[in-house]
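User: Hello, can you help with two protein structures?

Assistant: Certainly.
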Amino acid sequence: MAAPKKGRGPSGGQGRPGRSLVLILIAMVALTGGMFLSGHTTPRLGIDLAGGTSITLEAQNQPGKPNAINPTNMNTAVGIIERRVNGLGVSEAEVQTQGDRNIIVNIPKGTDSKQAQKQVGTTAQLYFRPVLTVQASGPEQPAPSDSATPKPGESGTPDDKDQGADKDKGEEATGSEATPSASATTQGRAVTGALKKDPTPSAPGSDEPKPSDSPEASPSVDPATAKLQEEFAKLDCTDPEQRTEAGQDAKPTDSIVACGSNVPGSYEKYVLGPAEVSGSDVDDAKAAIDQQTGQWIVSMEFTSAGAKKFQTITSRLSQQQPPMNQFAIVLDGEVVSAPSVRTALSKNAQISGSFDQQSAEELGNILSYGALPLTFEEVSVTTVTAALGSEQLKGGLIAGAIGLALVVLYLVVYYRGLSFIALLSLLVSGVLTYTIMSLLGPAIGFALNLPAVCGAIVAIGITADSFIVYFERVRDEIREGRTLRPAIERAWPRARRTILVSDFVSFLAAAVLFIVTVGKVQGFAFTLGLTTLLDVVVVFFFTKPLMTLMGRTKFFSKGGPWSGLDPKRLGAQPPLRRSRRVNAPTEPKEA
């Protein structure tokens, strides 16, 4: 006779509930330990709770490029802006798209919001242009003569030394030591680096103005040069509108007029030659302290193609006299720096001079991260103070505490002893949620904002609902006349199915909400999805095993009034008993 097959053990780990409890305890200890070891013992707070600045940028249509605003360019812009802001030392900034043409930049408190705002809103069309003329800017001044302004497309020759030598005889322009003349000023910065050759410029006083160089002796001015001279004469860089419009919408091959400022409140205007090096030719740039002088400098490293271009321009400029030995770093039509060139350079170079830490880091950041593929307009800038953020956080915590208190009160009144299991499960869920949120901050940049707090409050009800489903299934089994231990195991399959379906619907709603929304609403969706997943983990690995262990204790197994499983209070039926079937007597058959 064949031996009977062994049936499956009770589902839900009835025989070894302690193993599941140990497993989830290990997970809690590991997460808590990781949280303390990482130094992030609290969740990272969003702008609306911690305070900070929120900047909204809107992409603008560009002439001749009707399809420029597309997901690819928007995502590229997000990456560049994020790298720029992080380059300022802001590791917790949040940059994301909103809709099809907006970018939201959230910068937490403790950051120089003005500097960050400047970095974020700058399109960064970056070019290196040779300086042809530079002059202190003010109200409209006489245009420079043709001899002082090379024609567009020309960068100047050694014969152009007379430009800045008239009033600088006997003085050599050497970066911060240079003494600018009244009609030609410099940025007070110099470029040094890998020496290719060391041309020796002629002494500033060796080339006296020749009669042929005078305005009266100059040849006729072509229309393009005349227009450039007229624009230069009319340009007043102290006017913000003129300063913004100067150099805009110009082609890289055009000579332009532009404004710059080396000292706050003081402006210079420039005539600049065609761009010879672009921002894409810069491979890396960063601020550093010169070990010899102790001054801040900006180190640049060019790509292979950029190094050849840079060597060409610096080799020529190093032979010129001020200001034509300068090249201007032009960002969105504005001169951010115009260092002088001492020697011919190639792959590596250093910009030195009148830098402090902030200006050096700002220039290095701009050079390093390049140009945005789109032009953006700053739509709004919202600043949330830390005081307002703390008030909102306090309000959210109070709302959560009230919700939790109501849930606890309901569980204690209605489920009595079973509420102990529910409260422990809620505690485990809270610990897991808190530690994971704390670790997700530095890991993926998750920030707890006010909608996320709302999601966590909603999750309290979702988690409690899972316990209630299971408790009610157990009570149904007791009402049918079964004892507690069989009731716990028979109720689990039906409760498990209901819990999984309910949590799947909640998670699906959270996932859809996260995908189709942007900004702070995503915080609500993310928190709701996370807590829904944790609800499944807690119910399967903690609530069910703990219920199995509690069913073996006298307090619950006897079904006392305070256990929440009193058969009398539940209206239980008498135990089901099987009765033998009595066959009816058969009548004798007739012959």
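That covers the first. Now for the second protein you mentioned:
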Amino acid sequence: MNNLLQSYAQGRWFSADDGGTPLLSAVDGHEVARVSSAGLDLGAMVRYAREAGGPALAALTFHERAALLKQLGLTLMAGKDEFYELSTHTGATVRDSAVDIDGGFGTILSYASKARRELPNDTVFLDGAAEQLGKKGTFLGQHIYTSRRGVAVQINAFNFPVWGFLEKLAPAFIAGVPTIVKPASQTAYLTERVFRRIVESGILPEGSVQLLCGSARDLLDHLDGQDSVAFTGSADTAATLRAHPTVVSSGLHFTAEADSLNASILGTDVGVDDPEFDLYVKQLVTEMTVKAGQKCTAIRRAFVPESLVDDVIAAASKRLSGITVGNPASENVRMGAVASIEQRDEVLKSLRGLTKSAQIVFGDPDHVDVVDADASKGAFLSPILLRCDDKTADEPHDIEAFGPVSTVIGYTDAADVIALVARGKGSLVASLVTKDSELAGDVVRGLAPYHGRVLVLNEEDARESTGHGSPLPVLVHGGPGRAGGGEELGGIRGVLHHMQRTAIQGTPNVLTAVGKRWVPGSDRIEGDTHPFRKSLAQLVIGDTIVGGPRQVTLDDIDHFAEFTGDTFYAHTDPEAAAANPLFGGIVAHGYLVVSLAAGLFVDPAPGPVLANFGVDGLRFLTPVKADDSLTVTLTAKQITPRQNADYGEVRWDAVVTNQDGAPVATYDVLTLVAKTDKDQGL
């Protein structure tokens, strides 16, 4: 049986022209697959991504890309059982596989949803409002994001063969940038299996994703300033890649997520009888044993008040003693193997460095009892808990044992623990377990400059907490310094990493044409047909209705106050209102102004406008007094058809002015409008 993994390049599956390197099961050492990229033209892969994948994605809007991602995520989720079976060879238990497999598919679905909600149904994203650059408003500036015309190369670590590539693919795909996936060889067989199902689904445009199994060889030589490389792995490899001539000289976008000595802190306010004490210990043991500690976010340093060090060690040791190690396919096994014999040896090597200043208080590096497996053939380790009493020691803050290993370190107060944590030189995540919000505020402010994410855990949020070690699609994943200095995910932030921000200067009409969002000062279109009588297919940006004037009377103000119960003195007490330096007398309620404005621009008959679903950016600029007259100008600002729906969203620019032409209120009105006349449901 030929078990040589294939790459997917230029629209076809490719087999290397040599025998490949054996990839062995972490559980029993048998050969699972072989891997090689010999004979694969990596330059052609890059060209294909640019020439086929790039244009195919560029032809799709953010919403269309999101719809494809959703379809893909649901398809993969429906067939996930086969991936679980193969995942056991990586040493992963069912729980471990869920983090990797379900976590990866969930990230795809999260990005699909986020993109539909927060990005326009367009290919350009506007960054903020237009900036007025001249006195008369004829010269403006606007920042926009557009897709780079390159390829997103991802070089991944062995510990998350599914989530690791999908969490990078999703934001790049939404951004409209094709991807080349380079999995770590040791667990590439699981990546290849998932990728094969992606190709078989036929959902993604050809060229938008390619797979490179085996050595990346000269891949970076073919990249340039329109391309990006996202690396996950060791700090040493990250440093080597950063020194590559293409990275140094071409402006290639390079980001890294590297080794991280993540910390968890037990607050000084917590006692052994508090629920937070148990939460801390449970979290520590969980992070040591999930994926056999092979998580870039796992807890490597456990900081505990000096008076509780013995208690935490005793409690953690008791929990660890209940962790069964062995064949991850067995129901009774809580922790599987590390990814390979070589990885096990690396962990033991790092452990020898740590024991120069710390002592092992739980576990035996030379022996582990295993269930339904042979310890001599698999890459098994016992969970190892260390204790370091020498606060001057460097090893706990310099050496990462990438496995089920953590070190307990005592501290005195908030300032002490912040300084100790900072010795890790930058981490992906830190957690603080405390019931004291003020203490949390002080410690978080001290930790934040050294971390990409900080979790504060207590009894109140524990039930909903996703945990210390779980990166979330909507939050940034990355960290400063030793952690690589990179940033991934973070919702739409992750999409924008793959796009070019450009400042556009020109007239209001030019900026409206570029951004497809009406800019004040652009042409308005006033016709005989009320804009509310137009379907989405008929409506154009700039369509305008002017309503008014409408005089505001004292009776209007009194009635509104009585009817709504808003009897604030500025609307009801002439003497007190006169003393207010901002008003100098009775003024109309702001929401009365908005309500009257709606009465001036709304066409009441049934028609294409189906609903008003909100108001954005409401500002009251000039007080409205009795006998002032209001005029409203409503302009179609942005039109966004919704995917797979008979309606779309229309954002209207609303400006309410008084009899002197002074603006009294500005805001955006959000409506849902039928796409065509037949979609009105009338």
